[in-house]
Amino acid sequence: MKVTIVLTVYNREQYLPAAIESFLTQTYTQTELLIWDDGSTDKSLTIAQNYASQNPHIQVIPAVHRGRITALYAAMEMANGTYIGWLDSDDLLRPTAIEETVAILDKHPSIGMVYTDYWVINEQGTIQGLGNRCLIPYSQKRLLVDFMTFHFRLFRQAVYVAAGKLDQSMTYAQDYDLCLKLSEITEIYHLKSALYLYRNHNNSISNQQKPAQIRCSYRAISNALARRNMNKTRSLELVPGPQFIFSKKAFE
């Protein structure tokens, strides 16, 4: 199997069918969708299993509820693809998302991860505009202060392993932490095409757990500074808000 798309779900019955349908409409077909249900108490598991019963490219793993990072790590361990991508259970892929990102990795062996632009959509699926992070130029240093490698990402499984995989102690911002680690060992490419639809709603993790996400982002950056031997010349501090600020010396 060339590409594995990993989807972890916990009580997302309202959005899950659309997320799965966006995988099924992909123009690239050498794929599998690995759905890890993290102990949902609504109809999410039933919805996923119904789709899997009709399509051999979908695999569903029911599990007890242990939280996002545990579910995501375990699902990644089961991924068979040469390339791996994540689809959040309340988001959507454009039909050519996998095809266009695979083409970059196939053509350029030195690139370990490709990421795309994304549209922001509301609860009803209406496009609100291009995501702000799409406008931030990529660089390894700037990734320390701006998470521009947001959505959609496709990376080589071999590079994921070489980077040390996901940090299971990172309750939130685990994708940011991984991107920082990947940026230190491989080339990253920005595909300037909006191939992902990120749903902004009140019950999203980003809105519900923002303070915890910021604290975990702080930790991810601190770890990256230590790995890069920059922690003695760069300063990082949390300030009331809560937000984090980072010394401009990071860009020098």
Average pLDDT score: 90
CATH topology: Spore Coat Polysaccharide Biosynthesis Protein SpsA, Chain A
Spell out the helices and strands N to C: EHEHEHEEHEEEHHEHHEE
Relative helix content: 25-40%
Task: Report the uncertain regions.
Answer: 248-252
The CATH class, by name, is Alpha Beta
What is the CA-atom radius of gyration, in angstroms? 18 Å
Strand segment count: 11
The chain-level structural class is alpha/beta
- Overall 3D shape: globular
Could you describe the largest sheet, including whether it forms a barrel?
9 strands, mixed
The second-level CATH architecture is: Alpha-Beta Complex
* Structural domain tally: 1
Task: State the separation between the terminal residues, measured CA to CA.
Answer: 43 Å
CATH superfamily: Spore Coat Polysaccharide Biosynthesis Protein SpsA, Chain A
Output the number of helix runs: 8
For this structure, the quaternary state is: single chain
Strand residue content:
25-35%
